[in-house]
Amino acid sequence: MNEMIDSQPRRHILSVVLEDYCHVAPVQSVVPSGYWHRFESRVENNTAFTLDLLDEMGAKATFFSLGWIADHQPDVIKEVVRRGHEIASKGYFHRSIRQMSPEEFREDVVKSRIALERASGAEVRGYRIASDWISRQDLWALDILCDEGFKYDTSIRVLGSEFSDEPFRRFPHVHKSDAGELWEVPLSSWKVGPFCIPFSGGNYVRQLPDSLVRKVVARWDRDIPAPLFFYFHIWELDPDQPRITAASMLQRMRQYRNLEEMSERVRYYLSQYRFSPVADFLGLPAAKTVAATSNEKAAADMPVYAEPVTTDREAAVPEVRIPISVVVPCYNEEATLGYLANTLRSFSKSVAQQYQVSFVLVDDGSSDRTWERLNEIFGKRADCTIVQHVRNRGVAAATLTGIANASTDIVCAIDCDGTYDPQQLRDMIPMLEPGVDLVTASPYHELGGVINAPAWRLVLSRGLSALYGIVLHQKLATYTSCFRVYRASAVKNTTLRYEGFVGISEILCQLDMNGKGVVECPAVMEVRLLGHSKMSNLKTIRGHLALLAHLLAERASRQFRPQQSSQTGEVP
């Protein structure tokens, strides 16, 4: 063992990963980084809770933070430093090293350090890969970290028989390259026969039996000269975080299992053992203060993350903005309203030069705290109207209630759950030309798309669309989408047989049967990220079949009805 490590008092190393619940690996398949700004952030509260816990236990730690957080919530980074902890980098976005070329890895490393130093005012000397771990084929990344002036890395995890021919990699060691030297501080792992099993932090502490981990940590403290490397994530101390239901069952178990126990498990280890930040343990000098202007040139070359990119269409701005309303039906959506608020804010910002946007949010008789949350989030906004159904009537009824309360003739209806990105309305609204009364989103159009939706839903929706196409005049790829642009004057007096999901199709059918203009716009639909769908599949299928039967009867009746004079304006 290295002489420096042997001479240390019996201390161990503590690190904290500073990232939000929507950033992490288990949900990456359904939450791309471009959606992060739409989630209700819990970073500030979770960081404050973590800092208070560390103060209570008299512990200091190295906080590995995403650069994205530094750019979006710099006060969080400042508070970590003010409370006496070290800031280190976890990359800019939450990407695996296998998603990046060496050039992209270097760019991500530099961009993150610039953001963290700009926010903290302190030199950033440590690094940990954001997702997965560095394996044998990734050791080139350590050379890049050396070249960029980092002093240590904590990205190696010895698992199974990997690195069995290099047993020194289980413990802190110096990596040498042409650019210099870098301390590598790997995740602690226990050797069982020829295999190594990580155990000392995060997911391992949550998933493995608590009594087993306590015994292994105690044996390490007693028998292994090298320090234990212990870590946890700030979101692991937040059992009330929103559940991202679009993730698979295995991913949800990895993300949410034993969250309610994690605070006490961390508290136990902090009370039983002495911990230091990485830099302190390695004996590095105090981090230098970084002037705010020292990275100006580099920062200018690497812009702060931008929210959804606007297009050249904004170059031709009309002198008068077009007034539009956006209707959002909400039923038991307490958990999704923070996500909705950020999504609507982003949409308003992106179209502000073209459209004057107002919102109508309809609580459709919710039994949870949807009504209270709507008023908390939107109640004081001049651009928002909040309406409530006394009882649950269904998404179609809520949509028509929203249209009735809208102050404009152009009314967009969107899903509360974000299955369609409202940015797509920028393509749909211009299609509401004279003679068109409804523009409907069409994920089943040849230019549309569906992301992560279950196969049964695709079969059901496409089958229903095929049946509606037989009965109706308009031949569309999709008849069931709730994501639409309406001409309010054409639908305000609509009376529905079906007020739920089937009623959404019924609105379109009534317009079609009365000869109104209906067009579709290719769109992308995604699986719901938060909460659960309220649609009863069997009930909805029965309703659609009943509506189709009614439409067939109506068409037959019209065919045998005596033709009326064209002056009446009735379309047979």
What can you tell me about this protein's structure?
It is a single chain. With 572 residues, the protein is of the alpha/beta class. The protein folds into two domains: 8-288, TIM Barrel (Alpha-Beta Barrel), CATH 3.20.20; 320-560, Alpha-Beta Complex (Spore Coat Polysaccharide Biosynthesis Protein SpsA, Chain A), CATH 3.90.550. Helices cover 37% and strands 16% of the residues. The chain has helices spanning 3-6, 43-57, 67-72, 74-82, 102-120, 140-147, 202-207, 210-223, 249-256, 259-272, 278-282, 296-301, 337-351, 370-378, 395-404, 425-428, 455-471, 488-491, 501-513, 537-560, and strands at residues 12-18, 62-65, 86-89, 126-127, 152-153, 173-177, 180-184, 189-192, 195-198, 229-233, 275-276, 322-330, 355-364, 384-389, 410-413, 438-442, 449-451, 484-487, 518-522, 524-526. The strands form five sheets. Strands 14-13-12-15-18-16-19 form a seven-stranded mixed β-sheet, sandwiched between helices. Residues 1-8, 303-316 and 564-572 have low confidence and may be disordered.
